[in-house]
Structures are given as structure tokens and as C-alpha cells.
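Researcher: We're teaching a course module on how sequence relates to structure. For the next exercise, students receive a sequence and then see the predicted structure as C-alpha cells, so they can try to spot secondary structure elements on their own. Here is the exercise chain.
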Amino acid sequence: MSNKSQIERKVRVITKEVKRLLPLKYVKVVIKEIEIERRGIYKDLGGIGAYCPNPHLVEIGVDLTHPRFIKSGNSLLAVSIAHELHHAARRQAGVNISRGTLLECLWSEGLADMFAYEFTGNKPLWNKSLTDRKFRALLAKAKKNFKGTFTNQMYDDWFLKGSKKKGLRRWAGYALGFEMVRRYMRRNPGKTPVSLIGAPVGKVKWEVS
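Model: And here is the predicted structure for the students to work with:
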């Protein structure tokens, strides 16, 4: 996939399909090509980056030259759009997904990744599976900062860059959040990423098992 008009058409189709599943009001999905000097940031993500800066906007950046995007652009777009539109719906429901606490951010990212997984059948490239031992070790680290103010540095450490000093690999927060949600849903049949859109993590009886 390398034709911009083809990409725009595919994005419209995916967005329409996702909107059928989510309680979304107006939201605009903007597609743009990633600048050459920034393409290295998205190298390990298949040449695609996505962001939901507010409840009514999703921005998708694509590297049209990335081999994986050329080969698998449709599936990469579907995962990213589903993830970000879930964020938009959760924001529209009044949940503070990125400026609250580390716990809230973990939960919201986990829900978005689970929704994307259920919608496409594929986990996002940034979400790496955890063994039970690694899950519990990572959870123990996160619990030390569950309730404190969620800072930009914490976001970098847990979700973007990782931290050797803190023993966090890149994207660790996504893996932890996904596993938290997966275990919660396993214990609570009927609960889904859609049914939980309007529920802050403080109202969810989440516990480790």
C-alpha cells in the first residue's frame, strides 16, 4: 500500500466500521505522511504512528516507504485507528485517560489495545506478551506509582522509550495494561472494552489473579 488516495479510502472504511461499535459522537480522522527526518521513530511500528489529542480528533501518520506498511498497511491502519477511536470514545465519556494517574493510563491503554485486538484479530506491534512472572514483576513496579501524579517522564518511561534505570523495556505499559484488562475480562464475562468505555479505573473492581 503506497498510494495516498488508496490509504484515505481505506481509512474511511475502517473508521466507519469502528464507529458502528463505539458510542462515538463527532470525531475527525486526519491522515498525513510522516516527515523523512521523523521516520526512524516509527521504524519498529511498521511505519505508522497515531495520536488522539482530544475527544474529537485522531491523527494518523504514515511512512509510505516503510516495507511493512507497503506490505501490511491495511492491518496496521485498522489496529491503530481502532485503538485511537477507543481513546476518543473514552475521552468523550469524560474519562481522563492521560492526565490522571499511571493506573488510569495503564487501564485506558489496555482497553484500547484489547478493543483493537478484538476488532482486527491482531495485537498492536507495541504490545508484547508477558509471562505471568514478568506481569507480576511489572505490576509491582507500577503499583509504587499507581496513585501519584502522572508526569510526562512517567509516560516516556512506561509507554514510549522505556528506562534502563527503572528496568522498564520500551512499551512496557502497553503490555501491562493489556494483561490487566485481559485478566479482568476473564474473571468478569460480559465485560468488554466497549462496555467499559465510560468507567474510570477507580470504579472497576480490578484485582490480580
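Model: If you want an answer key for the exercise: The helical segments are 4-19, 67-92, 102-120, 132-143, 152-160, 172-187. The chain has two domains: 4-92, 124-190.
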